[in-house]
Write a structure and sequence with these properties.
single chain; 10 helices
Length: 309
């Protein structure tokens, strides 16, 4: 069936994690708790950075953007899942599925690009400290964020438009808790060769490119830190990028785990659990990593709460 001819009745069915009715309340409260923690934690980071003038520098500008993207990434998938559990429904419309897929790809790609930009920021700060304010000017920071948004939007739009050309049968079951691109493509009744090739090409270019940029930046950072004579100087230099390095490690480890679970097994349960780590757990942990490993952020959060009304 061509989806465009039956937009009023065409829908997918999201299978979630378990069909057992007695587990649905537990799943609902677990994911609601994780979602609220994610939104609250990242929102606190954003408000703390915006309210304190000392954080109006490139490093924290990019961090606030990352926190905003993490909120959006989680909001793309979890609210729909919670609503389906409450209404005891599995359905998502064709248009809703495409929209969810578009925004998920958009914010996931933005996460990748922003982490790369933050790695470049740390590279300039450590390797060229005297020229940092000149190189990382507000104009350059704005342009880097704008390019990240534009490239991510075009990348997401390309995948979404290519899904539009596919044909599907009605009421197909997606073995996932959201409309994941690869899972949707596998359900198509028409030829998906171009879609699969585009996924692989995009993974190499837009996945491998940013990762290579991060690796290059940190190779230069390590080389620069090793040339510092004092142990205190090395410790201070490393502490400025420890939080970012922790987030990068968490991001790419969960991404690799999601890819390996998809490639090594066809179990929908394993793939869904791996996706939870990537789409929910990582955005939830990012604020804690920056708060616990960055004394300035920790102090700003405390000041934000203790500030008199």
């Amino acid at each position: 069936m061509e989806p465009g001819n039956n937009t009023q009745t065409f829908k997918f069915l999201l299978l979630r994690f378990s069909e057992a009715p007695e587990l649905q309340p537990l799943i609902f409260w677990i994911f609601l708790s994780m979602y609220l923690i994610t939104v609250f934690g990242n929102l606190v980071i954003i408000l703390a950075i915006c309210s304190d003038p000392q954080f109006h520098i490139p490093m924290y500008f990019f961090l606030s953007n990352l926190s905003f993207v993490d909120i959006c990434l989680t909001s793309t998938t979890i609210p729909k899942m919670l609503m389906n559990i409450q209404t005891e429904s599995k359905a998502i419309t064709y248009e809703g599925c495409i929209a969810q897929m578009y925004f998920y790809i958009l914010f996931a790609a933005l996460d990748d690009f922003l982490l790369t930009v933050m790695a470049y920021d740390r590279y300039v700060a450590i390797c060229y400290p005297l020229h940092y304010t000149v190189i990382m000017s507000p104009r350059l920071c704005g342009r880097l964020c704008l390019v990240s948004w534009v490239v991510s939007a075009m990348y997401s739009l390309l995948h979404s438009l290519m899904v539009f050309r596919l044909s599907f049968c009605p009421d197909l079951e997606i073995p996932h808790f959201f409309c994941e691109l690869h899972q949707v493509i596998q359900l198509a009744s028409s030829d998906t060769f171009l879609n699969i090739m585009m996924i692989y090409l995009a993974t190499v270019l837009l996945g491998g490119g940013p990762f290579a940029g991060i690796v290059y930046s940190y190779s230069k950072i390590v080389s620069c830190i090793c040339r510092i004579s004092s142990a205190l100087g090395k410790s201070k230099a490393f502490s400025t990028c420890a939080s970012h390095l922790s987030v990068v490690s968490l991001f790419y480890c969960t991404s690799l785990g999601l890819y390996l679970s998809s490639a090594a097994t066809h179990s929908s349960h394993s793939n869904a659990i791996a996706s939870v780590m990537y789409t929910v757990v990582t955005p939830m942990l990012n604020p804690f990593i920056y708060s616990l490993r960055n004394k300035n952020i920790k102090q700003a959060v405390k000041s934000f709460y203790l500030k008199p009304c």
